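Side project, low priority. Logging it here so it doesn't get lost.
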Amino acid sequence: MKRPDENNSNDKKKKGFNLTRRRFLKLSGITGAYIWTTQKVGKPDSSLASPLQKRPEKGEEKWIVTSCLNCSGRCGIRVRVANHKAVQITGNPFSQVSEGKICPKGYVGLQVLYDPERIVTPLKRTSPKKGEGIDPQWKPISWNQALEEVSRNLRGLREGLRPHRLLLFSGLNSRSNEDLISRFAEAFGTPNLVTGDSFYLEAEKAGNWMADGHFDIGTYDLDHTNYILSFGADLLESTPTVARWLRKWGKLRREKIIRTKVVSIQPFYSLTSSKADEWIPIKPGTDGALAMGIAHIIIREDIFDHSFIKEWSVGFEQYRETVLQHYRPEAVSKITGIPIETICRIAMEFAQTRPALAIPGKGAIAWPGGSYIGYAIRCLNALV
């Protein structure tokens, strides 16, 4: 006669479960002995672990939320601090700019922080001679001394009614304080403020100022964009913020219900061009003419946003007359080297696939008159 559990045992053996009662008792005894031994002997000495594997003791580790300083984008980051030293940098998942991602510049933050040649104190030039090839003989001074000398010199300019003799240089890592610096310059009475932005970024800011009154670089609602005309913009290489563009590219191309179409207008076959839906080669420096030619098609076909133009723009009639008279597709094709059919097609796509966006990039506006090229590209956004 079979035992009550014999059928179950046979079924389990067939399924690969071969644990007998004797084996169960044996394993239980071994497990109990191991638990007793570890309680008596204690855990392995953590000091024997290598420095790379050793975890800091409780209370010696924390995460600090801050922003990356390795470019002007200021992506949100988290820094793991162990034993009072930063040891790891990751993206901040709550950042609405980079959405938890950082670019390679962000990851080298530790190397920048612990660079043995990093300047950590104010420096004062001690050599009275100036000029090319002359050693300025920089000497470290305290912050108190630096603030006292700067304050004394600024006070002398104001009391001598010479505030305009002050020249301010705003570096790349000062952009987050740019408003404060510009307000200080205005309050002090000097027009001489030179930023660390490159010429093309200054051209973009000037073009934006002419278009909508904001002297600043552009920021875009990429999540709700269905069509992008990229005028010389290296979206995947260097357009700020790189981490944001790399993350948004995945959203635009893979995660949206309506896949965003990207048209790259570049003289050369860039990385962005290779990943875009279409690459349109253009003669260098003629992006402004192309923007005006696209506007000609949109206005001629009467497919622009009438309500927006009426409520939120000024000077449209003069702009309309200029575009229709001087930027016919035939003329624009000769200037840019782009076929007439292509100009007409992308103009129709841009106006009819909304929300659409035209972006001025370095390849388009890093030219004499780049501000006006950026302005012409911005006007396309107003039309749609």
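Brief comment: The chain has a mean pLDDT of 85.
Revisit when time allows.
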